[in-house]
Specification:
Structural class: mainly alpha
Shape: globular
Helix content: 55-70%
Mean pLDDT: 82
Low-confidence stretches: 1-15, 257-273, 275-280
Radius of gyration: 31 Å
Number of strands: 0
Strand content: under 5%
Largest sheet: none
Length: 802
């Protein structure tokens, strides 16, 4: 009987790889190769692809288990080498993570919400009736301040969980681990090759046809990722597998007839030779070295300092494991030296000076040099302040973009948002609170323990170098996430989930190898005796075996049904955003290109009516496909207001919105129809743009209650609901509570204080507004010039600037 792999029980079902098992492998390969090409999985289409692949893989695996159970009885239902003690801790962590996200989005009674999220109740006083005056329609119902985003994040988290569990069961032999490592290495090579080709031949667009609103491809190498740091992280995840592939190719080349001459004890079991014979996946060593050089070279061209550090960390860990495992031969050292020469020559041709400048930032040893504009430190400080306020259960996964402006207003003047905290640890703290931090620590500890167990003395070298490659990739992810948000990139995290499953399986294989009986004949006899005993038991108790087989079949049938229901919901959650994303991206491209002129126009909007109407059409298509698209609702509010002002200027009665509001508030309209009739006569049919703006503002705050400028619009347009000032005042107070640093909100507060006869308060708010940035300063000057006599304007401006 041949020497076979530890932890692998004979299973003809898995040797013939039926149609369902082939579908599982195809889905896992799609996660590794396809999802990264879809904008790194951050694009909604990439998230949809990830969800479809994860759900399909889980269903295909369950179907394979069901058919195997019916065909082969009880022997096909177990997972060789995987015990309950192995699978329970990570499964528990996954289930607790799902429970946390469900708690964040679940409607809760007011008294419980106040205890679990006290800061939320404090800042949303309008929702909870704490300001007196007008009654808001409903109280805020849940812990998350962006429940739609949290629910979308739950879908992605379930994707990771399904991929982890499927890979955990699919990996039955060490060859399966090695195949996954080859996939990861090959995917990094494909991405690096595409990245350098796109960079050299760039026309500014991704794939030479897709124009992203906020990223171009001509500045640095970034492949299909919109962020160079995420591109470099993806390549860093491939460094460990590439070093493993290189040493494996050299080891096989040096062995006679494709069999290695040593490097770890051989263990007889019921799988294939643990040392491994030559397979069809073997690669010439020089190709492996070339691929490693390409990936490192392109990673350097990304100019991502965090990515460079992550790649270096992965390379060092892989090299140390090879050295400790006695596979760091002269051939491997020569191959690595050849790769280094290739990298140096390539950099000499493509941008050595730029790469040297980025590397010198590390050698300078200065934090100011690494973070010259203090941008990261500013975001980290704001994120830490937010985390302490939302420590009990977090502000909701996906809510950082809404929470951050409460603590800092660095980007508001540029019409941009800080979408992430530039640190996965800090962002997770903000969004999930202390429970999320504890679950993260448990997950990292489990992965570290699995990797260390696979590297223990006495483990065969073939397993140890696999564990080293996995450990290198996981360490690169954990380290890089300290200074970036790589955990929020689905393409990177999906590979981390697969590698984590491989780490757990390698630990099981290593454990079995250390306790295996060395004697081949004795082991073979024991296997034969156990098989004979099992057959005798099956023959002796056919009824019991049959009932157990039926029970197992029902178990897998129930799993298929549950996964089908869950999968329909998960995919349905991602379809709308995937269809809506192209409409919103097209709008943003046009908006950023055309609206730049509006910023220089002081109080005159240079965008014509036709362009505004076209933007409204694009945005309405986006919200029609995805009604939870907060950014699209907010842009519709702005564009409808701009179009109203544009039409109002050419109308019969060209009074500004403020005068329309004052005139409507002075009237006592008995019914809403009477108000609409008056507006149609006094303003014209285009008043309906105000109604639409109000509608979208209400939807925006219903989806995310921290949208300060939406409250401003609700305050300005409160007359449409018959309000005589109470709701307008309360909405303005709520805007100040959630956006105390926003220049537009502060300017509105200044104008409100001036109308209320409070010049000191108006001056104080105006000064704060002028500190919000140049754009806000221009808007403030325009508002002041429109409402202040010419002879008094210089004195007022002097008093503000003092």
């Amino acid at each position: 009987m041949g020497r076979q792999e530890v932890g692998h029980a004979a299973s003809p079902v898995h040797e013939d790889r039926g149609v369902f098992l082939r579908l599982v492998d195809a889905c896992l390969a799609g996660v590794v190769f396809l999802v990264p090409l879809l904008m790194g999985g951050r694009h909604a289409v990439g998230q949809l692809a990830l969800t479809v692949l994860a759900v399909t893989a889980a269903l295909a695996w369950s179907a394979d288990r069901l058919t195997a159970c019916r065909r082969n009885g009880l022997s096909a239902s177990g997972i060789p080498g995987l015990t309950f003690r192995d699978g329970f801790p990570p499964t528990l962590v996954l289930l607790l993570g799902v429970a946390l996200l469900l708690v964040q989005t679940a409607p809760l009674p007011g008294w419980l919400l106040t205890r679990l999220a006290p800061h939320t109740a404090e800042i949303l006083s309008l929702w909870h009736g704490g300001q007196g005056g007008s009654a808001w329609p409903a109280a805020w119902p849940c812990i998350s301040l962006a429940p739609a985003e949290t629910m979308a994040s739950l879908v992605i988290f379930l994707d990771y969980g399904l991929l982890f569990l499927v890979a955990l069961q699919r990996i039955r032999r060490i060859e399966d681990v090695e195949r996954l490592l080859r996939w990861c290495a090959a995917s990094a090579v494909v991405m690096a090759t595409f990245g350098i080709v796109q960079f050299v031949t760039s026309n500014g667009r991704f794939f030479w046809f897709y124009e992203h609103p906020l990223a171009v491809t001509s500045d640095v190498a970034k492949g299909s990722f919109t962020n160079r740091n995420h591109f470099a992280q993806f390549l860093a995840l491939g460094i460990g597998p590439l070093v493993w592939w290189l040493q494996d190719a050299l080891r096989r080349k040096s062995a006679p007839h494709g069999r290695p001459s040593g490097g770890g004890r051989r263990v007889a079991s019921s799988g294939s030779n643990l040392q491994g014979a030559r397979t069809d996946d073997d690669l010439p060593a020089y190709w492996a070295g070339l691929m490693l050089g390409i990936v490192v070279f392109v990673g350097l061209l990304s100019l991502s300092r965090g990515g460079m550090a992550a790649m270096a960390l992965a390379a060092v860990i892989s090299a140390l494991v090879c050295w400790r495992t006695k596979v760091f031969s002269g051939r491997l050292l020569a191959a690595l030296g050849g790769a280094a020469v290739l990298i140096g020559v390539s950099l000499g041709i493509f941008g050595l000076d730029r790469v040297r400048d980025r590397l010198e930032d590390f050698s300078a040893g200065s934090l100011d040099r690494l973070d010259q504009s203090a941008g990261r430190r500013t975001i980290w400080a704001a994120a830490f302040s937010a985390a302490t306020d939302f420590a009990p259960l977090g502000a909701g996964v996906g809510s950082f973009v809404s929470v951050y402006p409460m603590y800092h207003n660095a980007l508001a003047d540029e019409d941009r948002d800080a979408t992430h905290a530039e640190s996965g640890y800090l962002q997770l703290f903000v969004e999930t609170g202390l429970p999320g931090v504890l679950l993260l620590a448990a997950g990292i500890a489990l992965c570290a323990w699995w990797c260390v167990s696979g590297l223990r003395a006495g483990t065969p070298s073939r397993l140890r170098v696999c564990a080293g490659a996995i450990a290198a990739s996981l360490a690169a992810s954990a380290a890089h996430s300290a200074v970036d948000f790589v955990w929020y990139v689905p393409a990177c995290m999906a590979i981390v989930a697969l590698l984590a499953a491989a780490a757990l399986r390698v630990r099981g294989f290593a454990r079995d190898a250390r306790v295996a009986v060395p004697a081949t004949a004795k082991r073979a006899t024991l296997v034969a005796v156990r098989a004979s005993a099992q057959r005798m038991m099956m023959d002796a108790v056919p009824a019991t075996a049959k009932r157990a087989t039926i029970g197992t079949s029902l178990h897998w049938a129930a799993a298929i049904l549950a996964l089908s229901v869950l999968g329909v919901w998960m995919i349905g959650n991602r379809v709308g955003p995937a269809v809506a994303q192209p409409y919103f991206d097209r709008f943003m491209v046009e908006y950023l290109a055309v609206n730049a002129r509006a910023a220089e126009a002081f109080d005159n909007d240079p965008v014509d009516q036709q362009t505004l109407a076209g933007w409204i059409s694009l945005l309405e298509s986006a919200v029609r496909c995805d009604s939870n698209h907060v950014a699209a609702h907010l842009r519709l509010v702005e564009i409808h207001q701009r179009l109203f002002e544009k039409l109002q200027q050419g109308g019969v009665n060209s009074m500004p919105l403020r005068h329309v509001s004052d005139a409507a508030a002075q009237q006592a309209f008995p019914t809403p129809d009477a108000l609409r009739t008056w507006l149609s006569a006094a303003v014209g049919p285009h008043w309906e743009h105000l109604s639409l703006a109000r509608c979208h503002a209400e939807q925006a705050v219903a989806l995310s209650p921290l949208q300060g400028r939406a409250y401003l619009v609700l305050s300005e347009l409160s007359f449409l609901s018959g309000d005589r000032g109470t709701l307008a005042q309360d909405c303005l107070k709520q805007a100040l509570a959630v956006r105390p640093l926003d220049g537009a909100v502060l300017l509105a507060a200044s104008q409100r204080a001036s109308l209320a006869g409070d010049p000191q308060g108006a001056l104080a708010y105006a000064k704060l507004s002028f500190q919000a940035g140049q754009h806000q300063r221009r808007q403030g000057l325009a508002a002041l010039s429109a409402g202040t006599p010419d002879d008094s304007l210089p004195a007022l401006i002097d008093s503000i600037l003092v």
